[in-house]
Amino acid sequence: MTRTNGSWVVFYVVIFFFHQSDAMLGLDVHPSSAKLGADIVIPCTFHVHTLPVNPDFLAIFWYFQGKEILRYDTVVRTSHPRASLDTTKAPDGNASLLISNVKIFDSGIYKCLVIYTPEKMEKETILDVYAPPKIIITNNLVVKNTESFINCTVHGFYPIDIEIKWLRDKEVLESFLHYTAEKNSDGTYSVKSAVRILPKEENVNHTYSIRVLHVSLQEPLQKDFQLVYGNTSKTLLITISISVSVVIVIFIVSVFLMRIFRTRGIN
User: Fold this and answer.
1) Do 33 and 128 form a contact (C-beta atoms < 8 A)?
2) Phi first, then psi: what are they for 215, rounded to 5°?
3) 3-state DSSP call for residue 6?
4) Among residues 206, 189, 188, which one has the least CA distance to residue 150?
5) Would you tell me which of 50, 97, 158, 219 could form a disulfide with 131, CB atoms 3.0–4.6 Å apart?
6) What is the separation of C-alpha 139 from the centre of its chain, rounded to a whole number of angstroms?
7) pLDDT value at position 236?
8) Pick from 93, 92, 55: which is nearest to 76 by CA?
9) Residues of the chain with pLDDT under 70
């Protein structure tokens, strides 16, 4: 038995309105946070009256800072090299976005848009990326009864806000100096810090500490160390050796550059 053109039109109209009444599209998103370098799923789930949905009526779009980065309408297309979508879960209402090896610049506002014809719904969510700090002691060499500076570098952290404390045993030291934080090539930050002390004989066995508080840490990060005692002549010798080494390197580089310039001038 064959249908006339008119009956086919009626058939598709019935299917369309049946699908329309069956959809009742809803959408849920949640803010996310991730550690630098991790893989993160930015959740977005949708629900209709009946699951699984018909893939022929489904389209999923993801936007980052207002720019489309991924779309799915039976085929995934993405302009983000580390973004993907699990298409096997899409018919069951899962439109979540996966970003692998998260970078600092992945932080920001994302928008999930789902179309289940003829309905459409979109919602925004936020991804925060954190990078925990690391501590490097850059100088703990001191001279007894001589005012000295202990130096450290706290590096690789994000966001920029950070709190650094110096301690001797459990006593907080007050004569400290924090320099302006510098941005690294990967978007994280580094900051140098120093504390001024007057090391005495009774401080030989004391434990000094650097304690760092940052939003990426569940508890403060602390690095303990003891002072290395030298004498004035040894410290001076080290300083002179470093200075001489720097002068020699500068001299060698200068000679090398002069030879290059002369060679080019001759040619």
Assistant:
1) yes
2) -60, -25
3) helix
4) 206
5) 158
6) 28
7) 53
8) 55
9) 1-23, 231-247, 249-251, 253-267
